[in-house]
Amino acid sequence: MSEPSIFFEDVNEKQGTFHRRIFLMGGVTALGIFALVGQLGLLQIVQGGKYKKLSAANQFNFRILPPPRGQILDRNGNVIAGNRPSFRVLLIRNEIEDLDQTLDQISYVLPQTEANRRRIVRDVSQSQRFVPTVVASDLSWEDFSRVNLYASEIPGVQAVMDEIRVYHYGGAFAHVVGYVSKVSEKDVKAEGENPDSLLLHPSFRIGKQGVEKAFEKQLRGVSGAQKIEVNARGNIVAEDPNGTKPPTPGEDITLTLDAEIQARALEVFEQDSGAAVMLDIHTGEILCMTSAPAFDPNLFVSGISSKAYRLLADYERLPLLDKAIGSTFAPGSTFKMNTVLALLAAGVSDTERVNCPGSYRFGNRTFYCHKKSGHGPVDMRHAIKYSCDVYFYHMCNRAGVDRIHDTAHKLGLGELFDLEISGQKKGLVPSTAYKREAFKKDPKWHPGETLSVAIGQGYTHVSALQLAVYTARIANGNRAITPHLIKKVGAVDTDFDFKPIDIPPEHLQVVRDGMYMVSNDADGTAYRNSQLNLGDIKLCGKTGTAQVHSYDNAKTRKASIWKFKDHGLFVCYAPADNPKYALAVVLEHGVGGAAFAAPKAREIMKVALLKDPAMQARIVRPVPVEDAAAASAEALPDITDVPNPDPTIPPAD
């Protein structure tokens, strides 16, 4: 049996192992403490500002304060589009726990909101978390007061007073000024990558048409912000007045339009369809630009119902369309002044006469004058006075369609102007180049086609605005004025410079003489309906009737169906001896220019003249003896239109 062995451990070796463990653990601990201290230093010193802001963001929110929208004024300072107080109820999505329960409580206070429940639920689901949803708007004071009593007891409900757009003249400025309406997804995308946060505010309305749309940025202003303190649930607990940034109101826009003239223009149209445009012939300022029938833009501010919109959109007289710039019409006999100027440019003498027997044979066709018995021998001035078609049929190819086209563009027909609002239609004054491009199968211009163009028919189409510019340039005589609508943006006046008209003054005088005879000779086509009865102030004008439908289909020129009737036109300027205002009236399917368009133009022109201080002085002074004698003389019988027996030939006055 072996003896047991005894082993002895080395104390120094064991102690060395212990020291190594202590050193390793201490190093790890020191490294951890160093890392912790470094991280705390990073958070406190380096990133302290960042986290301080994040902490404040959890505590404070900023609520958008929409700015007052700029006003739109007429030239005399009358407010066309302004703002009025509006009471509304808002719903804050992130403060609501049970939407159905909240809506039940609101419906108890405001029963009318129950009908909009589906719309409210949809809007809440589509809105961002902190963007309020409109429950009810434009409340009466009684409803608003009742909501205020209970709002504090219903989580997420706010009763606020805001501003809403209001159009004081209703439909008188509907097409020019336009309207504002709710922001659409398309509107937000149009703002680019960084849309204005104001677009998300429930009370904000964006310009959709006319001046409201064209000057949206200037009218909108800059939003402010209200600093509020919120708790962990996002509920408001306090407001910080020192952190509030006030909004910057939008700029006011002053138009060249005159509210009284504009309102009168819409009034004289009554239920008729058409347009009227009046210009200052020296400055190009548009004093009146009316499209009839109109619509009430106030309907669109809070949101028009689909049924009401369809009634407007489906009505055959198209109240939503701006007929002053967005429609074009055959100018009819109002175009004849342009043909006269083209003939003069071609060297035709203004005293050369053409015998009008009532018809004109060209090739194998007969073209008829509007007066079946004919006008007899007429020179250039009398051709305008009587609106003699035969004279223009006989003469027009001596000028040629290209010269007619070039003259028309000098006078503003077939042109797009640098107008401040969109929606213009260019129209068309044909030429040989146009025929080559538009009619590949028959690109040659035929002389017979010039006959229709010469009396403002055929391919020719122009807008009411172009006709007003055309008349203004004839009356002005030396400057090719261009139209504009804006007089001032904020406090900054607009300024314009015009080029020479490049038409000899003696040629323009021939045309002006003819227009004077139209309105002031007893046998002129517009004599009866051109008398202003304002002292010695006389008006110069030109009537026009434009065929819009084949007489084969309409059966007669005096068709009973509205859409088959001819257009009636009248262009004029006044005073005759010192022109200042030019006016064009287009009466859609209004039959005749002399009988229907001229009386409307006369009434519109009288308002402008009566408002002008210089004209008032002329009106009250005594009428010269020779004029008084002429006025008391018995007038000759009216010249009336005779139906055109050839259904293929356009009519004329």
UniProtKB/TrEMBL annotation:
Membrane topology note: Single-pass membrane protein
Broad class of where this protein is predominantly found: membrane
Region annotation Disordered: where it falls in the sequence: 634-653
Domain of life (superkingdom): Bacteria
TM ranges: 22-43
Penicillin-binding protein transpeptidase domain mapped to chain residues: 274-606
Biased composition (Pro residues): 644-653
Annotated compartments: Cell membrane; Membrane
Entry keyword set: Carboxypeptidase, Cell inner membrane, Cell membrane, Cell shape, Cell wall biogenesis/degradation, Hydrolase, Membrane, Peptidoglycan synthesis, Protease, Transmembrane, Transmembrane helix
InterPro entries, A to Z: Beta-lactam/transpept, Beta-lactam/transpept-like, PBP_dimer, PBP_dimer_sf, PCN-bd_Tpept, Penicillin-binding_protein_2
GO MF entry, a single one: serine-type D-Ala-D-Ala carboxypeptidase activity
Identification of the protein by name: Penicillin-binding protein 2
Organism from which the protein derives: Asticcacaulis aquaticus
Taxonomic lineage of the native organism: Bacteria, Pseudomonadati, Pseudomonadota, Alphaproteobacteria, Caulobacterales
Gene name per UniProt: mrdA
